[in-house]
Amino acid sequence: MNRNDRMKQGPSMEEEESARRAGCRMVAGVDEAGRGPLAGPVVAAAVVLPKGYVPDGLNDSKQLTERKREKLFDALMQDDSVLKGIACASVEEIDALNILRATHLAMARAVEALPVAADFCLVDGLPVKGLSVPHRAIVKGDAKCLSIAAASVLAKVFRDRLMAELDREFPVYGFARHKGYGTKVHLDAIHRYGITVHHRRSFGPVAQMALPFV
């Protein structure tokens, strides 16, 4: 079976098992959510799945419906055999550091938040500066590795729920609908009401408006 065929079948534990055969005991998948939005923190998750653990329907969070993501999130969070760490980098840190460095900070924090220390990580995308353990970066890893897919679900749903909370605080912006991304509804609201303390002032569409905080 070639790589394309494996990807069509969804993520597997192949990378995790390879790392374990090399002597690693705690292999964590790491992913993030929220690099692109104009508002809200960036969130990262780290997940260590037990050997042989294959949650029904687990896949890259972008390939799942919101309902399926929510169901998987709750199942993963309630399962004590799954080790989880979830962490954020704040809007203030994003503006001070830039979004890439803030994302790496959130990932490092998520790994450190695991209840048992990881000795190897599989990271979605490119290498991460500042990670406290050795890691392998895997492009489109959330579609290939089950632990990264699990991390993508945790990070995505956790952040979506944070944005729903912000929506209750600032209902005119529609955060629950667009999750802080630069949709027309969001941009129109910024033009009309200004920006909040939860907007990323270093991002062009926000910085160009130079409007006061709400």
Automatic annotation (TrEMBL):
Its main location: cytoplasm. One of its GO terms (biological process) is mismatch repair. It is found in: Cytoplasm. One of its GO terms (cellular component) is cytoplasm. Its cofactor is Mg(2+); Mn(2+). It holds the Pfam family RNase_HII. The keyword Hydrolase applies. Residues 25-214 form the RNase H type-2 domain. Its EC number is 3.1.26.4. Residues 1-22 are annotated as: Disordered. CDD domains: RNase_HII_bacteria_HII_like. Belongs to the RNase HII family. Endonuclease that specifically degrades the RNA of RNA-DNA hybrids. This is Ribonuclease HII. It comes from Akkermansia glycaniphila.
